[in-house]
Here is the input.
Amino acid sequence: MKAIASVVLIASISVLTGCSTYSATRYSSNADNVVALRSLNGKMVNIGTFSATKPGEKEIMCRGVGPIKTPDGEPFSDFIRKALLDELKLAGSFSATAPVTLIGNLDAIDFSSASGSWNLALTVKSSNGKSMTASEQYTFTTSFYGETACNQTAQALMPAVQNLVGKITRSSDFISLLN
Here is the structure.
């Protein structure tokens, strides 16, 4: 009887405490990125598929409290692909029939909810044979408390991706991908 009571107690605690899921905010275009892309003077580009060193990675556990996910539950590589695509569309530089297509590989994605930083690295390859790599270490305010820290970590993903996209689109190497 004691064993059954223990199992029921453990199951009840598990159901009541559960774990949280932390969703990043939906991507929002960055004005500086759009302005940089508008300076391409009519060069058009297509965006192909993005892969990842950890294929299909959709979530990263935060402090054992719960996973950090993208807003729609897509892989992080797809979230970053869509971010670049959104910036190009807003700048008027995207065309599905452009002579050049860019593909990407999310080389690394990780965070520290303790120190308050996202670390991202992306390699972008052009159908013209050229490539470039950019990385971003985005810092943000964190907390000692797990629930707060994980929520702040999730909210910091979108601006970290904005900065990564900015490093790519504002790099002098970016134009060589489009020629």
Notes: The longest strand covers residues 101-112. Residues 20-178 form a domain with the Rossmann fold fold (CATH 3.40.50). Strands lie at 22-23, 46-52, 59-62, 66-69, 101-112, 117-126, 131-139.
